[in-house]
Amino acid sequence: LSSRRLSHTAPIARLSPVTSLASSSISILQLRLASMMRIAAVLALLGTAQALRVAPKKVLIIGGTRFSGAYLWKELVDRRHQVTLYNRGKTPPVALPGESAEDFARRVESTTMIVGDRKVPEELMEKIGCQSFDACY
């Protein structure tokens, strides 16, 4: 076998069923890697398509402006869910690393913000009232 490496853009289809791997520069490992890369690409596309097929849900996030809540908020908005943030309003929302100003503005505009303290049940009931949500984080 040749020690020459196959680039990821080299066509694998040039091998015919009668081509011997011993006479080619493509190893079994390289063929398996190429096959796994194709499978990963298909699974990624299926995952994206499935995520887009899910009907938008009404989601309440308690907090949502810091730590993992901010990333959850972004992911839910990116998947077209209707998000409501309920927090004390002490930490303003900020763009996440790598998020464009336009994407951040879209995320904020598409979100309902309710200021209140989750530790005060009366305030929570007053602000949220009889709204219903499909999920609460």
How far apart are the first and last residues' alpha carbons, in Å? Answer: 55 Å
User: Class by helix and strand content?
Assistant: alpha/beta
Tell me the number of structural domains. 2
What is the strand arrangement across the widest sheet? 3-2-1-4
**CATH class term of the largest domain:** Alpha Beta
Alpha plus pi helix count: 4
SSE order: HEHEHEHE
What gross morphology would you assign? elongated
> Which homologous superfamily in CATH is the superfamily of the largest domain?
NAD(P)-binding Rossmann-like Domain
Task: Give the amount of beta strand, in percent.
Answer: 5-15%
Overall mean pLDDT: 80
Largest sheet: 4 strands, parallel
Organism: Pinguiococcus pyrenoidosus
InterPro entries: NAD(P)-bd_dom_sf
Protein name: NAD-dependent epimerase/dehydratase domain-containing protein
3D architecture notes:
Helices cover 40% and strands 12% of the residues. It folds into 2 domains: 53 residues, no CATH class; 82 residues, 3-Layer(aba) Sandwich (Rossmann fold), CATH 3.40.50. Strand 1, helix 2 and strand 2 form a beta-alpha-beta unit. About 12% of the residues have low confidence. Strands 3-2-1-4 form a 4-stranded parallel sheet, with helices on one face. With 137 residues, it is an alpha/beta fold. The longest helix has 26 residues. This is NAD-dependent epimerase/dehydratase domain-containing protein.
